[in-house]
Here is the input.
Amino acid sequence: MSTYTVEDPRKVTTRRLAEMKAKGEKIAMLTAYDYSMARLIDEAGMDVILVGDSASNVMAGNATTLPMTLDQMIYHAKSVMKGVERALVVCDLPFGTYQGNSIEALSSAIRIMKESHAEAVKIEGGEEIIESVRRILSAGIPVMGHLGLTPQSINKFGTYAVRAREEAEAEKLIADARLLEEAGCFAIVLEKIPATLAEKVTKALTIPTIGIGAGGGCDGQVLVMHDMLGINKGFSPRFLRRYADLATVIEDAVGNYIKDVKSSDFPNEKEQY
Ligand code: KIV
Here is the structure.
């Protein structure tokens, strides 16, 4: 049973997110990569489900998001879509599928929409990828931006540390956010930037900002599902709040099952035909 009661049961759309910002209602977003978890998260009342390329880390065990392919993102998004009724589902465009040129970006976005039925795409970067953003939007595909720590650029950054602490990078981030808004993005993820900067960007824009490690001044928050459920034991950055310790729950349950099988306690008479 969810501890949260959905006040507005209508399907969440990009338009509804704009209304939420205007009303000062916070937006809750969480990642999901499969049918069963997406169904539970949707039933709990999540506003937005992100099929993130963090699937590369938490589902595939890679060190970065870079190896993720378009086919893999489509597979995850398709599975998530089958479990979701209310939340808006956004799918990441993976590394290498939109940076080359805007035509390639559009065809990648079209594949995601056609084959997975996701309702929007997310794309990392500002001015450098604005042509791709514009072309995708021109086909009627909603685009969510992503600024600050953009994990697909980890090899350029060389670290997952907080971004835009310096004046020049902060100025560029504000300019990029404005550019994404002018182009027609419906929201922007702000990852791991100072809370004061995130608040400034949030106030400067009419579209919602969704923060991760960007403080409470954003219009909404996003976390990676495995991190907030405590499945990912070793990962504990300052911004993360753990809402469960599923690693312990799962280890205990699996340990008990093994014990019961080994001792012939399972199955008992009522558990057989
Ligand atoms: O891929 C992802 O999970 C993301 C979130 C961290 C915003 O992009």
The CA atoms of residues 84 and 150 lie 27 Å apart. The pocket of 3-methyl-2-oxobutanoic acid is lined by residues 31, 50, 52-54, 92, 189, 191, 212, 222, 224 (CB under 6 Å).
